C-alpha cells in the first residue's frame, strides 16, 4: 500500500484536544476533509505527521506551542481605559474584540480577548487564545488521492 508523500491530496479526520482534555476541534470520520500535504490548510506540524502514513492508520501527535499558535507572551496583555469603549460596547470578560493597533506606522485590526473589566480599566490579551498550549491531534488517514 502506498504511503503519504509531499503534495499528495488526502482525506483525513481528526480530533484536537488540549492537555486538559478539552476538545477544541473535530473533523468527524463520516465527514473527512480533503487537503493537499504542504498546502498549509491545517497546522504544518499536523500535515508533516501524515507523511508516511497509509490509509486506515490513526496516530496521535502532540504539537508544541511553537508549531501551533506560538508561545504565550505577557507583554501582549494590556490595560486600557474603559473610556475607549464608551458608547460602543460594554466590555465583559471573555469577549473577543477586533481592536486597532499600530505596527510600524500602520494601523491594523487584531483580535483581543477581554480578561477583566471594571469601572475604570479593561485588561485585554492580544495573544491567540491557544497560545502556549500543547495540542494533541488524533488523526486518521482515510484515503490518498481524490
TrEMBL record:
Top EC class, one word: isomerase
InterPro entries: PPIase_dom_sf, PPIase_FKBP_dom
Residue span(s) of domain PPIase FKBP-type: 7-105
Transmembrane segments: none
Catalytic activity, as annotated: [protein]-peptidylproline (omega=180) = [protein]-peptidylproline (omega=0)
GO BP, sorted A to Z: protein refolding
EC code: 5.2.1.8
Function: Also involved in hydrogenase metallocenter assembly, probably by participating in the nickel insertion step. This function in hydrogenase biosynthesis requires chaperone activity and the presence of the metal-binding domain, but not PPIase activity.
Protein's UniProt name: Peptidyl-prolyl cis-trans isomerase
Organism annotation: Desulfobulbus oligotrophicus
Amino acid at each position: 500500500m502506498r504511503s503519504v508523500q509531499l503534495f499528495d491530496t488526502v482525506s483525513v479526520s481528526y480530533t484536537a484536544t488540549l492537555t486538559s482534555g478539552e476538545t477544541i476541534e473535530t473533523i468527524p470520520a463520516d465527514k473527512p476533509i480533503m487537503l493537499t500535504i504542504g498546502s498549509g490548510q491545517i497546522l504544518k506540524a499536523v500535515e508533516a505527521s501524515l507523511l508516511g502514513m497509509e490509509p486506515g492508520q490513526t496516530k496521535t501527535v502532540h504539537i508544541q506551542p511553537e508549531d501551533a499558535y506560538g508561545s504565550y507572551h505577557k507583554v501582549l496583555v494590556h490595560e486600557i481605559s474603559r473610556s475607549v469603549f464608551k458608547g460602543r460596547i460594554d466590555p465583559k470578560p471573555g469577549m473577543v474584540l477586533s481592536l486597532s493597533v499600530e505596527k510600524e506606522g500602520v494601523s491594523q485590526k487584531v483580535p483581543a480577548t477581554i480578561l477583566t473589566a471594571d469601572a475604570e480599566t479593561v485588561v485585554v490579551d492580544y495573544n491567540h487564545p491557544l497560545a502556549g498550549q500543547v495540542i494533541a491531534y488524533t488523526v486518521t488517514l482515510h484515503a490518498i488521492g481524490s
